[in-house]
Amino acid sequence: MQPIDVTRREKLALLIKEAGSQAALSETIGKAPAQISQWLNASVHSRTGKPRVMSNAIAREIEAKTGKPDGWMDAPAQKHELSTPGGSNVEFTLPTGVRRVPLISYVQAGLWTEIVNTFQPGDAHEWLITSDSHSSSTFVLTVRGKSMEPDFKDGDLVIIDPAVRPRPGSFVVAKNGREEATFKKYRHRSVDVLGNDVFELVPLNEDFPTMRSDEQPIEIIGTMVEHRRFYR
Prior knowledge:
Strand order of the largest sheet: 3-4-9-5-6-7-8
Helix content: 10-25%
Structural class: alpha+beta
Order of helices and strands: HHHHEHHEEEEEEEE
Shape: elongated
Distance between the termini: 15 Å
Low-confidence stretches: 82-92
Largest sheet: 7 strands, antiparallel
Number of helices: 6
Mean pLDDT: 82
């Protein structure tokens, strides 16, 4: 089952569709459009560093003001909610400014350049909503293990955009010579005689080894554009 905040973002997007626009929903529920955008994008609070997650009280308030039953914001969308009055299913359209991105496995990430064009909705573990400023090939990984502690903990989500070129200090997903990905910090070192960048993939936890592109085959898959942590 997907996290409750993901379900609430999807239901919020559905309410925007029903209202006709984000501005129309804003008037209905009495919340500023900027606040709605923050819930949709799970933006991080500038002071606390925590995602702006919709509270239970706000979810119940939105349900009451939009005529939805208690708990509707917390239940995954049903087929009849995504259908026309005549009963035929239609493609669910997200509001302007956001897109859905797939949560995939490390093996899928390692094969991403080969499978991205044939990737089907059923191939993802689940989908998250993020900004449409990221490319259409953007995906999500769940951080595994302790190699990137303390900044990234096991279970954190990282949103990776293959269209973004890494810079020194970026966090990247790379293929380390096998058909599986690894998540590390990117550190540029030099340029070889052929003009190729020589770089390191550095764990934040010093107990884990650093990898160098001039010592083993490494292929950068994409650069992290968002980091999400769910606070229970």
